[in-house]
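check this:
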Amino acid sequence: MWDRSKRKGWPVLAVAVALTVLFLTSHLPSAGHHRAFPPPPQCASMRASLVPSAEFVASRNTVGSDRFVEGTAPVLIRNAKILTGARNGTEIVFGDILLDKGVVLGVGYIPNALTQLPNLKSIDAGGKWISPGIVDAHSHLGVYSAPALNGASDGNSIKAPILPWLRSIDGLNTHDDAYRLAIAGGVTTAQILPGSANNIGGQAFMIKLRPTAERSASAMLLEPPITLGLNNSDTRTKYRHMKHACGENPSRMYGQTRMDSAWEFRRAYNEARKIKDAQDAFCAAAEEGLWDGMAAFPESLQWEALVDVLRGRVKLSVHCYEAVDLDALMRLSNEFKFPIASIHHAGETYLVPDLLKKAWGGFPAIALFASNFRKKREAYRGSEFGPRILADNGLPVIMKSDHPVLNSRHLIYEAQQAHYYSLNPGLALASVTSTPANAMGVGWRVGTLATGYDADLVIWDSHPLALGATPVQVYIDGIPQLSSPATLHKPTPFQDVPQTPSWEKEVQDTIDFEGLPPLEGRSIAGSVLFVNVSQVWTRKAAGHAGPHTANMLVLVKGGTIECYAPVGDLSRWCASQGFAADAEVVDLKGGVLAPGLTTFGSDLGLSEIMLEPSTTDGPVFDPLTMQVPDILGNTVVRAVDGLQFAGRNTLYAYRGGVTTAIVAPMGRDFLLGMGAAFATGASNALAKGAIVQSETALHIAVNSQMPASVSTQIAALRNLLFSSSASGPWSRVQSAAIPLVITVHNADIMATLLHLKTEFDASSSSSLRMTFAGATEAHLLAAEIGAAGVSVVLAPARPYPESWDYRRILPGPPLSRKTSVMTLLEHGVNVALGVKSDYDVRNARFEIAWAALDSDGAIDYTTAMALSSSNMDKALGLDAAGAANEDFVIYQGGGMFDLESKVLGVASGRRSVVDLF
C-alpha cells in the first residue's frame, strides 16, 4: 500500500508537469524555427568588459575600497614631495595627501572641508619623498617561502609541462617570513607566479602583502576573479593571470628540446581554440534562437583558463630569455591570436625590440633584472643597459625581483641600478610602480597616487632612487604597516635624484657586440696624469686609510702613484720623481683614487656560467660525505689550480673596482680546501701579478644541509684539529700560520665552534685563527665572537632568512635600529662584507655604501672601506700588500660609494699598468 503522506505531493507534481508541457508547447516550434530562450549567462560573461567603468572608479571616492578595514582612521600626510607615478613616473606634486576608506581622497592641495573627517590622523612628512607602493610583477612570495622547508614549497608541479589549470593561490603560504621584509622595502602589491619548470605552470594571482584579520590566502587577494567562487559582493568580471615559460627551465625539467616546447604550446592552444570555437558557435546560435540539436554550453574545467587567454581576458606573463624563444613566442601569439602582457627575465629582448613589437594585440612590457645575468647560458648576453635600450625603443620596462631569487625587499634597488645605467629616472620609478600595475591590468587602482586609487604608499628617508633609500612608513589600504620604525638621517645629497654618469659608448657597444662587448681595458705601462682629482685615499698595512683632499693632480707611473699635489704644485712635489711631460692626461671631473676592493663569497674565477658545469671548476670530493678516489690520497684541493681568468663576471668585477678576489674550492660539503687570491684584471695565471697569493686559508663548511649530521661534522673537525699526526694545511692551521675559514650561518653551530676553539687554545701553544663566513646569525653571538678574536665575513651583506640555519636575521632599518655589521663592529669583531653571487661582485662598493648608510653615521668612510679591503685580508689570510704595489681604482665624477661616479680604470702597482676603460 502507498503511504498517504507521500501521496500529498502528487497534485503539486501534476501541476508542475502541466505547466512545463504548456511552456514547451508554446515556446518550442518545429525543427528549424527560432526559440525565445535567451542565451546562457556564459555568453554574456565572456564578452563583459574587463575595464572598470568610469562610474565605478568614481564611486570609490565615496564608497571606498573593497579592501577597506572598518575602524581604519583617515590619514592626512602633510608637507611632502609626492612622486605620483603618473606621466611615466615624472609627475611630482608638492603638498599633502589624504587617505580614507582605503583610497586616496586627494593629492597636493587638500580643501579644508576634506580635512574635517572624524578621527583624522595628521602626520608631518617634513619634506620627505612619497611614492606609490612598490608593485612586484614577478614574485614567488608564499609559494617559495622563507625559511625554505619541504612542506612550504609549492612553486612548481612536476606532473606535466602543460598545466594551465593549476593556481598559485592554492599553494600560498600565509606564514612566509618574507612578507614582513618585503613590506619593509616598500612593496605593497605582488603578482604571485607559479615557478618556471613548466611551459604552462598555471594561473597567477595578485596579492596585497599586509596581514589580514581573516589570516587566509584568499583575504590577501587583489581583484580576485569570479572563477574562485569567493561570493564577493564585487561581481565585476576581472582580469586573470597566467604564467608561461620557455627555454632552459622547462627543458631541464622534462628533457625537452625547444622543438618539443613549441609543440607543447601549440597542442595546448589548439585544444583551447577548439573549445573557444565551439563556445562561439554555441552563443551565436543561441543568440539567433537556433536551439535545435544543441547540447549544454561547451566547457572544460581543465582548459577554461587557456580559453580565456585566447579571449584576451588573461594577463599573460612569459618567462623567456633568448631571441630564438622570443621569436617562437611571437609566432605563437599571432598563430592563436592572444596578447602577451609581459615577458620576464627577457635577457635578449633589448637585441630584438622590433621582433617584440610583432606580438599580437600590442607591445608586451619587459620585466628585467638590473644586473643578475650569466648564471645560465640563455642569460649570458643579458645587459645592465637592457632597460635603457628597450625604453629607447618604446617598450614598457619593469624591474622585478623573482623573489626569492632576489629579495623582494630590495626591489627598489633594481630600479636604482637601472637608473644608474642610464634609464630615465621617471621610467626607473615607474618600472616598479605604474608600469607593472598597468601591465597586470590593475593600473587603475595601484601603482599611482591619485584620487580614487588604493591608499598604498611609501614615505622614504631619501629619494627612492638614491642608494640605500629606506621606508619611514608604508601604507597598504590606508593602514600603516611599520610599528615604531627605525628611521635614518640621510645626508643632503641623498635627497635628490642621483645625477648618474654617461654610458653612451657602453650602450652602443652593447648593441654592436650583441651583448658581449669587449671588457678588457686599454693598458698603459707609461705615465698617466690625472687632473681634477678631489681625493686620494691610501691604504696602510695596518688597515688605516687616509684622504688627501684638494683639487689635485696625481701622477702615476707603471701603475704606481708617484706623487700627488694641489694644482700648481705638482712640478715641485714631483721633481725628485722626474715629472713626465709626456704623460697621458685624464680628467676625473672631481673623482677620486681609492684602494681596490677585495671580494669573497662567490665562485668568481672558478665559474663562468654557474648552471653550465662545463664552464666551472666543479665541486670537490668531500672525504666526509663522498668516496674520494684513491689517487687523491690525503691531498687538500687548492683553488689556485682551477682558476679561470678574463671571464665576464670577473672583468665586470674589475670594472666595478674589485681588483682582488679570494675564492675557495667549489662545493657545499664539509672539506672544501685551500683558498687563493688572484687579480681580477689579469689575463691568465702566468701574467705578472695574476696570482696574488696561491694559498690563503683552509676552508670548510658546517651546516644542517649535508648528508652527515652537524654533530658528525663537528666530530670530524675536532679529530682534524687535535690530530698529532696532522700534516699539510691542517698542521698550518694548528700552528696558526693560516686561518681556518668555516662557512656557517647558524648561531648554535657557531657557539659549538667557539667552544671547540676554546678547547684547542687551552691545549695548544698557539691560538686558532678562526673566521666565520656567511654568518647570518653571527649578531646573536657578537660579544662571544669578539671575545674569542674570531673574524666574520658576512655573505650576503644584506641578510635574508633563506633556510632554517639562516632564519634569525637582524634585518636592519626600518625593522631594527642595528644591523649585523654594526653589532659586530661594536663588539670589536673584525668584520668584512662578502658577495654570494658571481654577477653581483661588480656591485661590492654599493653594498659597502649601503652598510654605512644603514648605520646612520656609525660607520665612517674609513671603516666602510676596510669592510672590503684590510678587514677581508685579515679574515681570510691574505698578506697585507705594501703601498708600493697597491691597486688604486680611478673613479670619475664622484667617490667610490656614489651612484654618481663611474670606474674609469685601475692603477695596478702589482701588475705595473694602468688600465683605462
